[in-house]
Amino acid sequence: MSLNPDVLCLAHLRWDFVYQRPQHLMSRAADQRRVYYCEVPRHDAAEPHLETRQDGPVTVVTPHLRTDLPWVQAERRIGQLLADFLHTEQVRRPLAWVYTPMLLPVTDFFETGGVVYDCMDELGGFCDAPPELQAREQRLFRQADVVFTGGHHLWEAKRSQHPNVHAFPSSVDVAHFAQARQGLPDPADQQALPRPRLGFYGVIDERFDLELVRTLATRRPEWQFVFLGPVVKIDPSQLPQGPNLHYLGMKSYAELPAYLTHWDVALLPFARNAATEFISPTKTPEYLAAGVPVVSTAIHDVVRPYGDGGLVSIASDPQAFEQAIAHALEADHTDRQRQADTLLSGMSWDRTWDAMNTLVQRSLGFRMARTAPRMASHTSNTGR
User: Which Pfam families does its entry note (predicted)?
Assistant: First the structure.
């Protein structure tokens, strides 16, 4: 068994979706080994097959299945397709890096060299969570060599379910977002918008506090609200509408610093519900690295450490949120930014990956030590 095996990542997020934790980590993993990023299937094919493509060093694998295939049969077919594909690629005993327990059964069709559960979200709190998710996660806990969580609050919820759980909150590529401080040109689709501009980027879904945004936009018609990102799992017609509300669609990771350059305040307008109880928004340190003041609702992993450290303004109701924005528009942020830069200097996705990889190698070493006596015993018995 290798301590640096090829990686088969089983993910619930598409590679070309919003660029976040899986993309950051798997891109770094691919510096040291082959990485295959398997997405959830698309049900759009007459005959099941795998589509593969390269994105830099990562091989993205997309299963295509029949539209009428029930999920139990779908996961069996995906497992068979992956087993054949790994054989063709000469991938032996890959490390299964799992983001969604729902894809775990596909590993029954080939031998793995270890299992990592990177629990970046509490998927059971989302509105479309399948009923089998909890049982699948318990099985994943039993099989995993090591478990990572996407935040401290999530670590507190998972630490009793596995003996080897480690918190790795969202990190940041400081240099990428610090470009926003260099006076990048204003993107064409927000160029004509007046100031002040209050911005948010990310997935707009059931975690987004629609009523908060609607109330703020109504109370402050002179403020321009800019939202970047896809709208999923909610009806777009339910989004707050008005002359000062601007939905500019999904932007690439490379484009974000230019938008941030011309925002006066960055927002985290998350609702308080089951879907947000354990989130650790990647955009919090990204906003700070861009040099933009941040106002957030009282999300646990934003309050600690960012709110407690005075780096992000926390507001628990629309009136307080409005007041926090008004203060952020007028305040001198020199000291706050200096403190933020000090914190961010110890954060990077490179460091996060290196620390994770060290723990993975240690866990695989433990696995080898556990299996070696059994293998030696087997060899001795068969030799008699």
Answer: Glyco_trans_1_4
List beta partners, residue 97: 9, 116
Report the C-alpha gap between 125 and 134 in whole angstroms: 11
Rounded Cα–Cα distance for residues 295 and 288 (Å): 11
List, for residues 315-369, the tens digit of each pLDDT value: 999 999 999 999 999 999 999 999 999 999 999 999 999 999 999 999 999 877 7
User: Which of 57-61, 118-122, 259-263, 352-356 shows the lowest mean pLDDT across its residues?
Assistant: 118-122
11 is a domain residue:
yes
> Model pTM greater than 0.85?
yes
Report which of 90, 42, 80 is spatially closest to residue 64, judged by C-alpha positions: 42
CA distance readout (Å), 170 to 130, 301, 305:
25, 10, 12
Q: Which residues, at least 6 apart from 206, have a Cβ–Cβ distance to it below 8 Å?
A: 126, 127, 233, 234, 271, 273, 275
Domain region containing 11: 7-171+349-383
- 339, 364: one domain: no
In a domain, 248, yes or no: yes
